[in-house]
Amino acid sequence: MEINEKRKYKRLPIHLSLEVSSIFKQDNERISGLDAQIDVFDISKLGIGFTTTSVLPVDYYFNATIEFETAENKLLTVVKILYSFPNNDGTYRYGCEFVGLAPIFDYVFDDYENELKELNAIDK
Q1: Phi, then psi, of 71 in degrees rounded to 5
Q2: Which of 26, 47, 92, 116 is deepest in the core (most CB within 10 A)?
Q3: What is the pLDDT of residues 50-107, one digit of tens each?
Q4: 107, part of any domain
Q5: What is the dihedral of CA 87, 109, 18, 16, to 10 degrees?
């Protein structure tokens, strides 16, 4: 069965570990003290995919600092949780989008993609 990719931007592999200590909604509802360890496995200009053993609610936001493995770039951004589903190993998979990340930062993702290509980590 062929899967038709509908994403606007290419997903790039990345290995990051982040800790989410609090999440919030736009109506100032906040959940603190989470200390959820998340493992980011891919990134695009629109968002990230990650896994964690923690259950995080959909439609909540968290602050994230994204530091790329090879590039010297760092992004401070807000991330919104769009969906989640359980994996077979007891973890949960999440899809998230960046909120308010200006298009001027697209070069960070382009630089990262080019560095991955040079390292033969992705198809050219």
Answers
A1: -80, 160
A2: 47
A3: 999 999 999 999 999 988 866 677 888 999 999 999 999 999 999 999 998 988 889 8
A4: yes
A5: 70
